[in-house]
Specification:
Blueprint lengths: L2 H4 L3 E10 L5 E5 L10 E2 L2 E3 L6 H13 L2 E14 L4 E13 L9 E5 L13 H12 L3
Parallel strand pairs: 1-6
Antiparallel strand pairs: 1-4, 2-3, 2-7, 5-6
The structure holds 8-OXO-2'-deoxyguanosine-5'-triphosphate and magnesium ion (MG).
Length: about 140
């Protein structure tokens, strides 16, 4: 067992793959500073004590983008070790309901198709999410 890894902070993150009626997915560009500064991501954030994963994702998406979504089924769960912390990414399919997406906590927002998503730089671990989306919902 790796003692240093086991003593790192652990973050449980709710991650939203938000679909609109055109079959596009909402992605956001993180602000410039920090580990993933300037990378694109699926919006989401840390779960709070006592919160369900569904409530976490709904709350994070309202805080970050000012929109209302319906949180659907879990798409996948990813465990990943970064240098200074470990994460569990709980990725859910979600449906856009209402509100104009706003850059409340990010630099940019885009609605993209699965064909276009390769043009954006995500954290490496996100390749797993994109591969599953392609497999389940892609045209090829
Ligand atoms: N929301 C989101 N997080 C991701 C993705 N891919 C990925 O590796 N992560 C990681 C990077 C971040 O460290 C973490 C997201 O946490 P967060 O949005 O609360 O941002 P943060 O860690 O900067 O927040 P904080 O601890 O400083 O309060 O999960 C993704 O697609 N979406
Ligand atoms: Mg976040």
């Amino acid at each position: 067992m790796n003692m240093s890894l086991s003593s790192l902070p652990h973050k449980v993150i709710g991650v939203a793959v938000i679909w609109n009626e055109q079959g596009k997915i909402l992605i956001d560009k993180r602000r410039p500073l920090g580990l993933h500064g300037g990378f694109w991501e699926f919006p989401g954030g840390k779960i709070e004590p006592g919160e369900t994963m569904e409530a976490c994702i709904e709350r994070e998406i309202m805080e970050e983008l000012g929109i209302v979504i319906a949180v659907g089924a879990r798409l996948m769960t990813i465990e990943h070790d970064y240098t200074n912390f470990t994460v569990t990414l709980c990725v859910h399919n979600c449906r856009y309901l209402s509100g104009e997406p706003q850059t409340l906590e990010c630099d940019e927002i885009r609605w993209v198709t699965l064909e276009e998503i390769d043009q954006f730089t995500f954290p490496k671990v996100n390749e797993q999410i994109i591969a599953v989306l392609r497999k389940n919902y892609g045209v090829n």
